[in-house]
Amino acid sequence: MKEEINKEKAILQAAEEEFITKGFAATKTVEIAKKAGVTHAMLHYYFRTKEKLFNCVYEEKIELLKQSVQVFFTETSLPFAERIKLGIESHFDFLRANPRLPMFVINEIMSNPERLSLVEKTIGEIAINILATLQGQIDKAVKEGEIVPVKASDLIIDIVSLNIFVFTIFPLAKFALIPQYDSEEDFFNSRKRENVRMIMCRLKNND
After folding, report:
1. For residue 153, which of 137, 135, 141, 126 has the smallest C-alpha distance?
2. Which domains does the chain have, with CATH numbers?
3. CA pair distance 169, 191, nearest whole angstrom
4. Which of 6, 35, 39, 153 has CB atoms 3.0–4.6 Å from 14's, for a disulfide?
5. CA distances (Å), 88 to each of 22, 75, 149, 162, in order?
């Protein structure tokens, strides 16, 4: 049983690397099997089709994304603004660990519009739950004078846009901007702090 779990995990890890690097269409299951150290027949035994394997990889990433934003709602003992700060950082760290994921999803949608239905199903379910809960927390924080009014949808778009942009621009930034920092790590840490600062200034109640 343990050996089977290890083989399945190896296949998923290899598939993730191949799909994100090459895209769905250009990825060959024989290459995934080779990288995972299993036979091609064994790969199909575990996952049947390339489509099913792709969906497993995608759904795993979506689950990680869901976990990365849970801090918005789980740390209820903290002030709302502090939860937002932790949420921004958690989302940024998720992207730091998966820097190619946003462009991968976008490219897959552009090259295969039918894949949008999978995105809508998974992201849509998350968005509905997040926005409903978040708006209630925002309204409460506004009533208590902690922040200024803002739509939950606008706040989420602001956070996601700022964080994702850092990683979509990085291939260019590392040549033009990274020399202005001590290291790549310094660059990412600086951008995370700046994104937090901008969102918190947006929410700040100046009365």
Report:
1. 135
2. 1-54 (1.10.10.60), 69-203 (1.10.357)
3. 12
4. 35
5. 29, 14, 18, 10
Q: How far is CA 140 from CA 20, 22, 72, 143, in A?
A: 40, 46, 14, 5
> Measured on CA atoms in the order 79, 199, 149, 139, is the torsion positive or negative?
negative
* Tokens 């606008």 found at: 154
E strand or H helix that includes residue 39 = none
Cross-strand bridge partners of residue 147:
204
DSSP 50-82: HHHHHHHHHHHHHHHHHHHTTHHHH-TTS-HHH
- Which residue's entry shows tokens 């990288």? 35
- The one-letter code for the residue type at 154 is D
Contact by Cβ (8 Å): 102, 95: yes
DSSP 147: B
Of 15-19, 133-137, 203-207, least confident by mean pLDDT is 203-207
- For the chain, where are the alpha helices, taking DSSP H only? 2-22, 29-36, 40-47, 50-68, 71-74, 80-97, 101-111, 116-143, 152-176, 184-203
User: Are 1 and 8 a contacting pair, CB within 8 Å?
Assistant: no
> What per-residue confidence (pLDDT) applies to 192?
96
C-alpha–C-alpha distance, residues 35 and 134, integer Å: 42
Residue 39 has pLDDT above 90, yes or no: yes
For residue 204, give the 3-state DSSP assignment. strand
